[in-house]
Amino acid sequence: MSDKAMSDKAMSDKAMSDKEMNALRAGRANGAGGGLRPIMLAIAGDSGTGKTTITAGLAEALGPERITSVGADDYHRYDREERKSLPFTPLNPECNYIDIMEQHLQNLALGKPILKPVYDHDTGKLGRPEYIEPREFVIVEGLLPLHTELARACFDVSVFLDPPEEIRIAWKLARDTKKRGYTEDEVRQDLKKREPESERFIRPQRAYADIVVRFAPIEERGQTADDPLSATLLLRPTIDHPELHTILGDDTNQAMHLKLIRDDDGKPVDAVHIHSHADPEVTSKVETAIWDELGVDSPLPESLGRLDSDSDTRDEPLALTQLLLLYHLIQARERLSGASSDSDG
Amino acid sequence: MSDKAMSDKAMSDKAMSDKEMNALRAGRANGAGGGLRPIMLAIAGDSGTGKTTITAGLAEALGPERITSVGADDYHRYDREERKSLPFTPLNPECNYIDIMEQHLQNLALGKPILKPVYDHDTGKLGRPEYIEPREFVIVEGLLPLHTELARACFDVSVFLDPPEEIRIAWKLARDTKKRGYTEDEVRQDLKKREPESERFIRPQRAYADIVVRFAPIEERGQTADDPLSATLLLRPTIDHPELHTILGDDTNQAMHLKLIRDDDGKPVDAVHIHSHADPEVTSKVETAIWDELGVDSPLPESLGRLDSDSDTRDEPLALTQLLLLYHLIQARERLSGASSDSDG
User: Fold this and answer.
1) Quick one: angle between helices B3-27 and B98-109, nearest 10?
2) pLDDT over 70 (residue A85)
3) Hey, CA dihedral for B107, B154, B51, B292, is it positive or negative?
4) DSSP letter assigned to residue A317
5) Architecture category of domain B25-344 in CATH
6) Domain A25-340 top-level CATH class
7) What is the ipTM of this complex?
């Protein structure tokens, strides 16, 4: 077989797998164990974009016992020591077992267990792997969960976190100096080293997300990273969003509004804006309307919008972002339930 | 869905997987990467049955660069420390991630990489997993590689090592006191503790092997474990063995002979016997005939039959056992080659 034929064959094998995965997920409400297959959510974004904060609120709202949380960064191929002599950062797919991550995402999506590798962010070492059986909801957060077509085929809902660089740098500086023991200089040098790979591998995932979340200060009002942030959520018509156009107007003077815009690539998206100082009475009405659209019995969770676990202050843009993700998780689950009882009857 | 229906469904999912696996292997000469899929050999047997000795000779004969060797014992669920407070030994499937082993065997059989867990027999600890891409031949040796139907469906050839208990105890005592730092007392206590699970989980695998290998002294001649051992190979008609009936007679006075017998379960098997003192001229003729039947260009490997890597003495029963496995590995590979070029043309 020629090189070309070999490569075509490998590609068609690969393409088959993506299609197979989509077909399997679409055609099957039940997972390997006979129960409903899990709902899979990807939260992709660069280091310091707030992946953990978003995930924590979802886990609390759904109940941690219903959630399996997987860090895509556990698939690092090299430990911190080994990386010192290597020409790439953890942002590079070469620095990760992407093929193994794909296998594990496929297994989880079909309700099968995995033996997940473990990367310790504190020590920078790779350790004993961990046996994981997927629960009702699987949240996969990390640098590259949406990097390949096959990985993307495993998710029901995908999110890309896309804050402006100055916000991300401020967040990353705060975390890495306080929680991971780096100096400010080290963090800044690391950011500089990572930038080319961030551009090449992380940011392209934005194009594949169902929802793009951007927390940002409003520059026209002279706000900075220290002010409470507003949020803009881009909702791509790749999944069924709540019917926000019946709830929100497009008057940009309103603290919450919805605008039909073209994204950077020219494709249509709905852009929801939630102002940092939005009146809780206004946001609460919108939240209730979104929640009611789900038609579930349980009340709207009160734990949304917490910036950290100790704090009692509620951040409205964060709360609405988490609620929207919650909506999609519960909606996807309800649909599976329906499909499963249909096929039973 | 009732419990019964749920359980039926889970079982049918499971049964499907075995069939699917067999169908996939049978219908496909090529693996995930487009090249030929690997040939899979299982070597199952209790602790101290000589799995490593058999495997080492095969690896040397084929060339280590063509072989991927996988230890089924790497799938231990608990480390040595954790097992101290648990009511079972490593022989118990509960003490192993059998489902993960199945997944990995499926992947390897289809030419896909795995991230294999690592159990260190010296320290008794579980460590950083290892990325493995299957080469031409994958040899999986360990306690439980043939425990489940799905695992068995992944192999082209399967072997069970079945020495009499006194031989196994002598071998295990020698190894565990010399190489693993145990006292004789500890090994004997451990053997006693393991016996019920050995009977329940290890020995039943014998029934599923294509080849059962028994190295033993000839009791009628008053031989003991210290004498060179003879070998009896049971060849089940589950795979195509070389046509030994055209080479060997059934005269049990001959140093090598072939007898059609009923196995313990009443089913027909061919039993090849190689006497420990068989004349190398006789065995050499048989070996050449087996090798010629393969019709390959390369000469009969000279490295077979070494009891340990330092020794130059050749053990004829071991050499013939290894040759027979080699025959099956090469034959299976040749068949895939043929199937692949057929489908290419």
Assistant:
1) 30
2) yes
3) negative
4) H
5) 3-Layer(aba) Sandwich (3.40)
6) alpha beta
7) 0.83
Interchain proximity B103–A97, CB inside 8 Å: no
* Residue corresponding to tokens 């919008």: A305
Mean pLDDT by 10 residues, chain B (345 residues): 43 56 71 83 95 90 94 96 93 97 96 96 94 97 97 97 93 88 92 95 97 88 80 94 89 88 91 89 89 88 79 84 95 87 57
Enumerate the residues of chain B whose CB falls inside 8 A of the CB of residue A129: 115, 117, 126, 129
A217 contact partners, CB below 8 Å, separation of at least 6 = A167, A223, A224, A225, A227, A229, A230
Query: Is A132 near chain B, with CB under 8 Å?
Result: no
B129/A131 CB distance under 8 A: no
pTM of the model: 0.87
Query: Which among B28, B143, B42, B36 has a CA at the least distance from the CA of B94?
Result: B143
A16 touches chain B (CB under 8 A): no
pLDDT tens, position by position, B275-313: 988 888 888 889 999 999 888 888 888 888 887 766 677
Q: Which of A330, A317, A326, A158 is nearest to A239 (CA)?
A: A158
What residue segments make up the domains of chain A, in order of their start? 25-340
Cβ of residue A310 closer than 8 Å to a chain B Cβ: no
Identify all chain B residues contacting A134, using CB atoms and an 8 Å cutoff: none
A240-297 per-position pLDDT tens digit: 999 898 888 888 888 899 999 999 889 999 999 999 888 888 888 899 999 998 888 8
Q: Among partner residues B13, B100, B127, which is closest to A32 by beta-carbon distance? A: B13
